[in-house]
Each structure stands twice: as C-alpha cells, then as structure tokens.
Amino acid sequence: MEKKVVITVLGKDRPGIIARIARVLFEQDCNVENVSQTILQTEFSGIFIVSIPERLAIDALYSRLIDQTEEMDLHVYVKGLESTESHGSSTVGDPFVITTQGPDQKGLVAAITAIIAAHGVNVTNLQAIFKGGDDPSKNIMIYEVSIPPETDRSRLHGELHRKAEDLGLNISIQHRKIFEAINRI
Length: 185
Fold this sequence. Notes:
CATH topology of the largest domain: Alpha-Beta Plaits
CATH architecture of the largest domain: 2-Layer Sandwich
Number of strands: 8
Number of domains: 2
Helix content: 25-40%
Strand content: 35-45%
Order of helices and strands: EHEEHEEHEEHEH
Mean pLDDT: 89
C-alpha cells in the first residue's frame, strides 16, 4: 500500500537539484508521479507528486531530503496528499488559453485573475514573460484555464476584453486546441 505526498523545493538555481531530489526519493523506495519545475529569473521552483511506501513516515522523508540537500541551501516542504479525487474545481471544463500582451504594470495579474475567478474559471497554468523596456509586445502573460460548461462565455469574454482595454493590453481567448494549432513551430 502506498500513500502520496506533495514535495515543494525552492532555491537558487544550479545544476543537480532535480537529480538530488530524485536520488533521495529513489533511495527511499518512492515513485515520482508528476513534476512541475521552472526557473524564474535565478530561482528554482519544483513541485513533485510522489507515491511513498506506507511504512515511510512523511517526517522521515522530509528529514532525509533536508539532510541530503543541506549544502544546496534549498527550502523543502513535504505535505501529505489527502486524495487525488477532484472536489468540484480543478480541470472540469473546456481548456482555453488567454494571452495578454502589453505594458508590464502592477496589478495586471490581479485584475485579470479576479475576472477569471468571478466566473468560476480555474487557472491551471500561468506563465509571464516580462522583458520590460519600451516594447510592450515583449510583455506576455499566458493563462491556461478550465472553463466549466455552465459559464457564460460571452459575458466572461466581454469582461476580460473591457479590462484588457482599460489596462492597455491586447487580449486573445482561444480554445487550447486552436491555440496549439496556431502556435506550432
């Protein structure tokens, strides 16, 4: 019998972080099921969903990870995953991609996500590419969202377009399949 945990790892990026975490997990007879990892400027951020043997205490796994990553100066957090069942939100709905392009400004993400949340839409992934400078076309936000079937899409689109106009942004809202077809290399 196995149980699952979520492991979050943060720290200054350097080669070998994932290899070290993966080695410790392997040595503890754990299995990495999902990983989301990224580098933001100079910082590493990784989230691992891991199945661990029933006999392995979460505190023991945490201690082993801390011990084996101490010289890397990482911040590690381990939390039990109660259930993998969806509780009415998550990814129930149609996948869409919302992109905004325009000047970087404080409150941009807050304004767009407030509208998204008000319509019961879940953000499943968010990426920001802020290059700054005088060329606002280099500042792009990509929101991957899951729109429930009961959402009034026309109203959602209208509110997003009005807010984008207020913020001086160009906005695009596309089904993920269309977005992927258009943006293939």
